[in-house]
Write a structure and sequence with these properties.
The chain has one domain (about 5-215, about 280-310): TIM Barrel. The chain starts with a helix and ends with a helix. Strands 1, 2, 3, 4, 5, 6, 7, 8 and 9 form a 9-stranded parallel sheet that branches. β3 (about 65), α3 (about 70-85) and β4 form a beta-alpha-beta unit. Helix content is about 45%, strand content about 15%. The chain has about 325 residues and is α/β, with parallel strands linked by helices.
Length: about 325
């Protein structure tokens, strides 16, 4: 609360450096627009910065909202990132706008672009410009040949499809892509993952299904402390549902805020942070999630007022997993 965009980005850099130091495999950043609580509006710009300030961790978009952009622009940006940081770049693609309708229209510049009917074609076009040309795309393009995102690539980013629905799960499976499910704000991971695996067709990119579950966690020395630190995330979850999203409040402000019975009931259903407690409790919950879904990877996010609380959670998971 009261922090500048610059301070928020400095915190993201420190968090990425902590994840790098602790041995985590990936660090992804999101794309959101015109949101008072989110400074990450342009993943490629931020990823270039993070690549220069980390050593080995893979960096990616969680994700680029492809309907907001021309496929060529996305492919060129991520080809350039891969050239700068070879073997370290993930292109996670999503189809939601990452904002409200009016802002999405401003991004896309005309109402015809608001449709997502061409999303599968645009995904394949992006993939083709990054070295993965599919026969279905050649057929759809007719006489037009796929463009190239860079003159002479020595490697390409790893492409993921992101989602929270059956649509994205099935599409990722049919295209033979890696799939990341947004469990941190969507409830039914198992159904989506099972659909992905049933739909999976081996491809040049991937010979067998590969699932990431993105979820949220917060660890503190006691359960009571963890619940206290999770307060701001619950206030934000309520604000998001009511369209009143603002800067994140402090844990003290969240504790002092009064909640109606309806809000308390809503908070039982809202995701906020999924796993909250001591290291032992949270690790057990995350292991159970992996067992239920058969996930190949977990992506952990969290929503706290203080950066150090997020770093403490990463440290505790690294030590106790």
């Amino acid at each position: 609360m009261g922090r500048s965009s610059g301070q928020a980005l400095q915190s993201s850099t420190a968090l990425a450096q902590a994840a790098d130091r602790l041995g985590y495999a990936r660090f992804w950043v999101a794309e959101h627009h015109n949101m008072p609580a989110v400074a990450s509006t342009n993943p490629p710009v931020l990823l270039a910065h993070l690549g220069a300030h980390t050593e080995r961790i893979k960096l990616g978009s969680g994700g680029v909202m492809l309907p907001n952009h021309a496929p060529l622009v996305v492919a060129e940006q991520f080809a350039l990132l891969e050239a700068l940081h070879p073997g370290r770049i993930d292109l996670g693609i999503g189809r939601a706008p990452g904002t409200d309708g009016l802002t999405a229209q401003a991004l896309r510049r005309h109402t015809d672009a608001m449709s997502i009917e061409d999303f599968p074609l645009h995904v394949m076009e992006t993939m083709a410009m990054l070295g993965d040309v599919r026969p279905e795309l050649i057929e759809a393009l007719g006489t037009r040949q796929p463009l190239s995102a860079t003159p002479n690539a020595s490697s390409y980013p790893e492409v993921w499809l992101l989602g929270s629905s059956g649509y994205s799960a099935q599409m990722a499976g049919m295209l033979g892509l890696r799939y990341s499910y947004a469990h941190h704000f969507a409830p039914d991971a198992l159904a989506a993952v099972e659909l992905y695996r049933r739909s999976f067709q081996p491809s040049a990119a991937l010979d067998k299904p590969h699932v990431m579950i993105a979820t949220s966690a917060l660890i503190a020395e006691t359960a009571e402390r963890a619940e206290f630190l999770a307060g701001p995330s619950r206030v934000q979850a309520l604000a998001l549902r009511s369209g009143m999203l603002g800067p994140i409040v402090t844990p003290e402000q969240a504790a002092e805020r009064g909640f109606s019975e309806a809000e308390l009931a809503a908070m039982d259903r809202l995701p906020a942070i999924k796993a909250v407690g001591t290291a032992e409790t949270v690790v057990a919950q995350l292991r159970s999630l992996v067992e239920q879904t058969g996930a190949d990877e977990l992506m952990i996010t969290g929503y706290t007022y203080d950066l150090q609380d997020r770093i403490n959670t990463l440290e505790a998971l690294a030590q106790n997993w």
